[in-house]
Specification:
This protein has 216 residues and is mostly helical. The protein is 63% helix and 8% strand. Strands 1-2 form a two-stranded antiparallel ribbon. The longest helix is centred in the first third of the chain and has 31 residues, at 31-61.
């Protein structure tokens, strides 16, 4: 897990999340803390963009990907070991070659990072937070599109890799979870919306002094 490419992806993840957190702080704070957050967003954003592009080039030309050679009918019940998987250079780019619209994901990641840098530097914390969230979505989709249909590739025994087809739950489980989501997701959304409404606005020294017994 500590090979150079894995460490680079760790840099991508860390700088991306630090940029997102710094963008949030620029939206919620003011004064010295907001200035420090803007600086952090700027530095982490530059590291994220550089590391993301480098990781993309590296995985395209220097990392072996996985591809399915043969597999049983995805609609049937079969063992994950029934398929045949091989490793090949550039295989992670196959979905992008087959579906060019997927390039929107890495473009969104880079554009979101650049706009976060720009908007954070001019004090537009809310907009910077929105575009940093877009950069997160683009980064995650980039990895998901590249790996599809693999969910968990196996480097020791490629045929044992899990895909979205052989890792899916049964129809009964999916139906039960669908009912649970229909019932509980609105509750979660209402609660989350209420929390954000209560915590809206900037966290200032004046607000903390005035709401000492309720703000924390």
């Amino acid at each position: 897990l500590l090979n150079p490419f894995a460490l680079l992806t760790g840099v991508v993840s860390l700088s991306m999340l630090a940029m997102h957190g710094a963008a949030y702080l620029t939206m919620r704070t003011e004064g010295a803390i907001a200035r420090r957050a803007r600086n952090a967003a700027h530095i982490c954003g530059m590291v994220f963009i550089a590391a993301f592009i480098l990781a993309g080039v590296w995985q395209a030309f220097g990392v072996q990907g996985f591809r399915i050679v043969s597999t049983p009918d995805p609609g049937s019940a079969f063992s994950p070991l029934a398929k045949t998987v091989e490793r090949a250079a550039g295989a992670w780019m196959a979905t992008y070659a087959a579906h060019p619209w997927m390039w929107l994901a890495p473009a969104l990641a880079v554009a979101g990072g650049l706009l976060t840098l720009l908007l954070a530097s001019v004090g537009r914390g809310g907009a910077a937070f929105v575009f940093s969230a877009a950069a997160l979505a683009g980064t995650i989709l980039t990895a998901g599109f590249a790996m599809f249909p693999f969910v968990m590739p196996s480097s020791t025994f490629p045929n044992a890799s899990l895909t979205v087809y052989d890792a899916v739950s049964s129809h009964r489980t999916l139906n039960i979870m669908f009912v649970a989501v229909v019932i509980f997701l609105p509750v979660v959304l209402l609660y989350t919306g209420w929390v954000y409404r209560v915590l809206r606005g900037k966290v200032t020294e004046k607000r903390i002094l005035e709401e000492t017994h309720s703000v924390y």
